[in-house]
Amino acid sequence: MIETIKKVEVTYSPDALLEQYRDSLSSPYDRTLITVEGFYRDRKGKMYGKGHYYDSLLHKETGTELTLEVNRELKLSLFDGGFFRMQGFLNRRRRSNDDSSVSLVYHVLKVEESEKKRQLISEEDYQIIKGRYDRGLANVESLLLEIFRTGKTPTVLLFTGEDSEGEHDFYAHMKFSQFYTIEVKKVNLSSQSGLIEELNKLEKDSYDVMSFVRGGGVGLAVFDGQELSQKALGCGIPFITAIGHSRDNTLLQKVADKGLATPTALASFLDSIVEHHTSFLEDLEEKDTELGDIRAELKSRVESLEAEHRRQMGSMTTKIKHLRLVAGGAILIVIFTIFLFSL
Asked: In terms of Cα–Cα distance, which of 163, 166, 238 is closest to 202?
């Protein structure tokens, strides 16, 4: 049976593979041998059936999990947190608690360890990332646009280093800073304590969005701190990271509502929101003008119809008066005729 399925010469991440089935339970890759890679997570569950286990393959950046069905022999070659490339195919399984619900399970046929030196994700980091995505992300774009559309000015808090070039890069590339209320807090970015102290002072409704701004390079380890990430998540304020170049990827970036590569990218992002809102207002103005023209045309037509109605009513009134006179004359003639016959 296995020999009859096709093979795709592409390696997928868990996210990319599940995307093929996001809106449908069918895909061009049905009955196809697929290669997938990611970080293995041992669920430490019991053995099922004739010797297979259900574990996970984790996408490092998003925390997305692909459920694996792996046999006892292959499981012996895996270790928790290791980065592996696997070959297999997808199966559909009905959930035991819901006959109408179907889950996707990747049946592992072959395991190949890959890139041993890759940074592994710890259990603690994994739980923070998973918890973040379980709670859901704030849509920062929609949030800022909604604030603009209510006629208010979004308040943005920037955390920057005391001697950081990030703030300079941000303002040097920001075209529409006047549309925001921006407050800058300079802190020592060499340790978590300064940032955590400032985060402890924040009130949930103080700012609409907060952002951590710093250029790339060395010294980003502070943003890998678990306590800092948990504290940022616990503030209840949507936050953006702009703390490094695209090759940098810290824990704080992984759990942010919006992750941007650089302070310059943050400036461009905020500018794009203003441009989007301005375009929205221009569209509204154009539509309002069109509606105004339509209203004017309708008003003209109504006035014309009313004038025609008044003309017709006037003509009808005149005719009724004429008919009354004719009818009155006729009645007089009849009365006079009857009177003559009575003599």
From this structure: 238
DSSP 191-239: SHHHHHHHHHH--TTS-SEEEEE--SSS--GGGG-HHHHHHHHHT-S-E
Q: Residues in the chain, how many?
A: 343
Q: 180-184, 308-312, 336-340: which range is least confident on average?
A: 336-340
Q: Determine how β-strand 83-95 pairs with β-strand 32-41.
A: antiparallel
Q: Is the pLDDT of residue 267 over 90?
A: yes
What are the tens digits of pLDDT across the range 313-341? 888 888 888 888 877 778 888 887 887 77
pLDDT confidence tier of residue 95, bands split at 50, 70 and 90: low
Residue ranges in the chain assigned as alpha helix (H): 14-19, 72-75, 123-135, 140-149, 166-173, 192-201, 226-234, 251-255, 263-342
CA angle 319, 325, 326 (to 5 degrees): 85
Closest residue by Cα to residue 224 from 322, 95, 122, 302: 122
Instruction: For tokens 């061009």, name the residue.
Output: 28
Q: What is the 3-class SS of 85-127, one letter each residue?
A: EEEEEEEEEEECCEEEEEEEEEEEEEEEECCCCCCCCCHHHHH
pLDDT band at 69 (very low <50, low <70, confident <90, very high): very high
Measuring CA to CA, which residue among 38, 39, 41 is closest to residue 53?
Answer: 41
